[in-house]
Inverse folding.
């Protein structure tokens, strides 16, 4: 949670008026989503990993990160760039495309947004839990960080087929755990994504085979 906490501190420094915990959580989500922009030429680019491909071992192996980033995510980027040519989405930003498109364009745009947030949230220097306002907001909602972890892991383990589990916030700042199928993202429900774990098999199968629940338990060590 170091990265989330650092983003939180930066947000607080930039703000001149007192904020509630939930508002600060929304600021974190905005920061994360803000990392995802259409390129100047209207084409989307493969995001650069903010760490080396072996930095998350042993929780996620170098091989999994390499394939996940350079093959799977790169494939979504190339697909979207090809699919939007000549459509009303050619010059749209990624969030707009995810909110307004359907079919193949939605699937690929959603997966780019999801993965850009996913890869950005990890760190090799995790403290294992958030602190400050984010921790308080989680405790206010689930009673304790441990209860939140249990509910989050359960939601991730029970996504049927391929999809995602997210911690997200609604417009009032209430925190929620959501399950998203395939390439969907909480923004399609008017929610701000805060933390998302990919439960497509390509995210964990090389390292955990069918043991998705075990992967979800381990992943806290790199958030
Ligand atoms: Fe993925």
């Amino acid at each position: 949670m170091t990265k989330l906490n650092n983003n939180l501190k930066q947000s607080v420094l930039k703000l001149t008026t007192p904020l509630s915990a939930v508002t600060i959580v929304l600021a974190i989500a905005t920061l994360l989503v803000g990392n995802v922009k259409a390129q100047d030429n209207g084409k989307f680019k493969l995001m650069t990993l903010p760490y080396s491909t072996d930095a998350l071992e042993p929780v996620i192996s170098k091989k999994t990160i390499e394939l996940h980033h350079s093959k799977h995510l790169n494939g979504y980027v190339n697909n979207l760039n090809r699919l939007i040519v000549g459509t009303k989405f050619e010059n749209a930003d990624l969030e707009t495309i995810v909110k307004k498109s359907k079919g193949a364009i939605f699937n690929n745009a959603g997966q780019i947004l999801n993965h850009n947030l996913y890869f950005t949230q990890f760190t090799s220097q995790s403290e294992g839990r958030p602190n400050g306002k984010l921790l308080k907001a989680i405790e206010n909602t689930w009673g304790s960080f441990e209860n939140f972890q249990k509910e989050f892991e359960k939601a991730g383990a029970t996504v049927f087929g391929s999809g995602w589990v997210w911690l997200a916030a609604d417009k009032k700042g209430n925190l929620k755990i959501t399950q998203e199928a395939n390439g969907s993202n909480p923004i399609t429900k008017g929610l701000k994504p805060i933390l998302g774990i990919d439960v497509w098999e390509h995210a964990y199968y090389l390292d955990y085979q069918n043991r998705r629940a075990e992967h979800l338990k381990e992943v806290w060590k790199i958030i």
Q: What stands out?
A: The longest strand covers residues 163-169. Strands lie at 163-169, 175-181, 192-198. The chain has one domain: 2-36+62-222.
